[in-house]
Amino acid sequence: MNITDQHHLKGNLLESKQITADTLGEGKLIEGDVLSILGKIDNDVVNVGMTSPPYNKQEKHKGWLVKNVVYDVYKDALPEPEYQQNQVNVLNEIYRVTAPGGSFFYNHKIRWDRGNMYHPMDWLRKTEWTVKQEIIWDRMIAGNIRGWRFWQVEERIYWLYKPIGKKLIGKELRSCDAKLTSIWRGVPEDGRKNRHPAPFPLWLPARVIISILESETQGIVLDPYIGSGTTAVAAKLLGHKYIGIDRSEAYIEMTCERLNNAPGEMSKIREEQGLHHVKGTFKERKTKGKHVGKYRDTDNESKIAQPTLFEQ
What we know:
Blueprint: H1 3-7, E1 8-10, E2 27-31, H2 34-38, E3 46-51, H3 80-97, E4 98-108, E5 111-113, E6 116-118, H4 121-124, E7 130-138, E8 154-161, H5 175-178, E9 183-185, H6 203-213, E10 220-223, H7 230-237, E11 241-246, H8 249-260, H9 266-273, H10 282-287
């Protein structure tokens, strides 16, 4: 039995709350509408998730240099208030299915339409989540090179947190994860090698999963807009279970194909894992009387001799 037969479920055949931690096996890919499928997942199942939803760009506002973003079976052209309310509803359902202490990372961007700016915080503040951090993804390329504004090369990744009781902060990150800072630099997935119109690179969900689940095994990772399967591949290669949802059968099949061939992408995971390392933490350096001042980037050779917050 191949991975498609094992993991591809039709959402309209599932009963309410049928997806539980005990029924996942290695993972499930579920075809159907995201809100409908989320409603069939039990409470408090997910440990961490990441997604990048359609941006409601009206299938035409991608940019001067990039072709229009047209999805397989979804028309990305809702009235803006309807789109934002849909995202609130989806995020609140993700909150319900996430265990207390769990996190969800939400990739979106600032958009403009007829001079009006739409910021993801416009609807994130209306959800049940605690917004723990805004991370800048510096994609280092601009899709639109017209000069109406400075070229937009960044997107945003929001770390959303489900508190345990009234403790809004949660546990502290390890030094080897926190040192990666709140600006993540890396180009998007090469569209010539991925048939999905808007894939993100494997290192993004890998960084999230490594940082949040640490050495934990068999965590449960959710991506409600699974697309080409990047989050599921990262989860599998890092030893975790996954739940992926998409209304497109073609994208589910694409994900199944990537999961079948996942070992071929392990080098990318290893590269990301190599970044999560320090010889000495802040606490250890302070105890030994070493420098514990400002963080300095040592990637630039001219700064190598400067003291850093962590021993690399």
